[in-house]
Amino acid sequence: MMTMPEIERCLRQLRLSGVRDTLQTRVLQAQGANQPFLETFSLILQDELDRRQSRLIERRYQQSGLDEKLTLAEFDWTFNPRLPRQTCFQLHTLAFIAAGENALLVGKPGTGKSYIAKAIAYRAILQSHKVQYLETDDFFHRYAMNSPAQREVRLRTIIDCDLLVLDDLFLARAIPDDAGALLQTLIHQRYKLRRSVIVTSNRVVQDWGTYLGDNTMSTTILDRLMHHCHLLEFDGRSYRLKEAAETLARETKAN
């Protein structure tokens, strides 16, 4: 019979870190409760599955481009009562991903569009979906600086993921020369594959042709994006201004 160090060494070789980390605890638990072997073994196997799922989720989060783990439960819905709360929670169920639908979040700066998009994206990662989150203007500039080979790899990752988030589209008035064609390619390819896109923007869709410099291209992009799409309009006061005012008030009080 193997000793415990020998068992742990075998588990390490088999890359069963979940089992290795909880084995001694499970053995003591079984001894103390006279637990049947199969019950103990099933718990040990579940430890391994839980560890692997946790690592998969963390790896997909790191690969997604998200920089925050946001949830709708932490969102202050009382600040702007006119926000489309019901539709936000409907998107949060992720049924739109299974249906290959899109979502367009449009409205004033600071009203929570990016927060909602990030919360939905993080929820998708927790449900084992592959997600790509892009701060759109920054992505356009970085993509333009890549080599052709790097562009091809990056484009394939973005097209193949389950959910693509294009945050703050047209935040800058001017976009790189090839950005319009790139955006059209992304939307068109994902449309053909019925893979979901979330777009947030401060710009009304009627002005997209101006920012793209091509009304025909704008029409093509919107035609594919808006087919099977949830349109959410965000209005009201700015959360950023609210937070800035609260910070200023605290600093003033402290001084």
TrEMBL record:
InterPro entries: AAA+_ATPase, DNAC/IstB-like, IstB, IstB_ATP-bd, P-loop_NTPase
Domain AAA+ ATPase residue range list: 99-232
Entry keyword annotation includes Kinase: no
Superkingdom assignment: Bacteria
Signal peptide per UniProt: none
One Pfam family of this chain: IstB_IS21
The keyword Cell inner membrane is annotated on this UniProt entry: no
Keyword annotations: ATP-binding, Nucleotide-binding
The family this protein is said to belong to: Belongs to the IS21/IS1162 putative ATP-binding protein family.
NCBIfam families membership: IS21_help_AAA (NF038214)
Name of this protein: ATPase AAA
Organism: Bradyrhizobium iriomotense
Gene it is expressed from: istB
